[in-house]
Design brief:
Helix content: 10-25%
Largest sheet: 2 strands, antiparallel
Distance between the termini: 51 Å
Shape: elongated
Order of helices and strands: EEH
Strand content: 5-15%
Number of strands: 2
Structural class: mainly alpha
């Protein structure tokens, strides 16, 4: 096991490294298939790329139900 003092502070490691924030805007990917998305679900805000993914999302994944589940 690695002890906290086992690596000298001047040696970079995955514990001490950090990436700078990106200058690029975040990617907007379809939550259903992973392709680039152009559309957003008006009920829950989920991103989708096509009518096929929209239909699948509305049928199986949309988190905003119209009625109250009892």
């Amino acid at each position: 096991a690695l002890l906290s003092g086992a690596i000298p502070p001047h040696v970079p490691s995955f514990l001490s490294s950090a990436a700078a924030p990106s200058n690029l805007p975040p990617l907007k990917l379809c939550d259903t298939c992973g392709n680039f998305s152009k559309y957003t679900c008006p009920k829950c805000g989920t991103l989708y790329c096509s009518l096929r993914c929209d239909y699948l999302h509305r049928e199986t994944r949309c988190l905003k139900f119209e009625g109250v589940l009892a």
